[in-house]
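Justification of computing resources. Each target in the renewal requires a structure prediction run like the one illustrated here; the chain below, 482 residues long, is used simply to show the kind of job we budget for.
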Amino acid sequence: MANKTMKKIFVAVMAAVMCFTAACSSSKNTVDSGTGAETKGRAEDSAKVQSFAAAHDAFQTTLVEHNSDNDPIPDPPEGFFDLVHYSSKVGDLAAYVSSDPGDGKKHPLVIWVVGGWGNGISDFPWCYPAWDDDQTGSAFWQAGILMMYPSFRGGNGNPGNYEALFGEVDDIASAYDYAASLPYVDPDRIYLGGHSTGGTRALLAAEYTDKFRAVFGFGAVDKIEYHNNSQFTFDTDNEEEYRMRSPIYWLDSVKTPTFLIEGSDGNSSNLKNIERTSENDNIHCYIMDGADHWTVLAPLTQVLAQKVLSDTGAECNISITQEELDEAMKQDPVIPLPVMQQCVMEELGITFSYPYLWDMEDVAENGEVSYTLTSRYEDDNVWDMSLLFFDAYLPEEGVDLQMVMESYTGDGFDVEEKTIGGFPAMEVVALMENDYGDTFQTTLVAIQKDDILFTFDFYIYEDLGDDADPMFDAIIDSIAFE
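Resulting structure tokens:
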């Protein structure tokens, strides 16, 4: 194995370049909407005149900035999500939609609208869902629920321009129509959810249409001016432009069970104003004490996923109590398994899976078979801070399972003999320190298939503990031989 000592160099390089940084896609603003008395009066006046749908459809927004982007759309994991286009008032818009399960049944689906002002989609649905800031909505697909992540007008090269919560409402309604047309989706069990700006968009959509079975909004604001006004593209001198984008004026138009959630340290003053203003029994508000705008997401989307799975009646029967949400906030963080992709090496007769967000690089020299598998991100989590070496030792290299076992036992390591894919194998766990003083836990699995020795050498920072074990176990469990 000496001719592959470059692996150790790679580990050292990895330690030098990887940084423990936490990603955050939203700015942290806490706002105060006041008492809501004036807002309530104006909201009641609006409701007496017309519904939000009628007012929205009759209004012509004036854009003073015509912003859009051409950000590329990454290919989704095959068989997991499909990249599709759905029809809207401005043309066809891109979206990720869960692939057909192929079981001939109709399934519930959640349309998830992320926060921020961008109107596009990227690979965020299958990136690591951080427990303290999971804006991916991944708890739904992890629970087996179909999902749709729509882009909107002006994003990803779509027709139209950013309209800052106006035309995007129409796009959400169009996304519903597309999802309902899919043969494997139950059109009567399509739900809508969103966070931050996405939560406000979801609430506006609930005021616009009653097609959704239920709506879940995290961190919505009551008035658009409490969002980042540097992103406004409309005529800010026209008060009616604000009213058409502010949910507080149209709460009576909500005909769908709508559940609004926020942390006490987030936009809770907005939610309190909605709760004070609303006389609509379809609107349910929950403020999580001690939580912020982001920490409510991971624990409580898991609760909502289970509610969706249990909601099988003719009509929505979802019921949520403050007490059960409070209890859910106390649970220990959950580390999910990543979305996997398959590697097939026909010439070696082996197949295995590895995380979709990992890149597999051929680092072989002199006819060897050697690959490194690393994440294309450098975030502080077990998905992105792991490293895997895959090697195949051909007969001419003169390395076999017995030699490797004797090497490790001779150095005092405990070696576990196993059988993997019907062939003899071993596993050994060790610690290794590089030149920078970083300590890694390394787990080596070696498998002897006829005259070829396969090794999977997995590295994880010791500080991350054993949280990556399920991911590595999933890789090993996926190994199959022809």
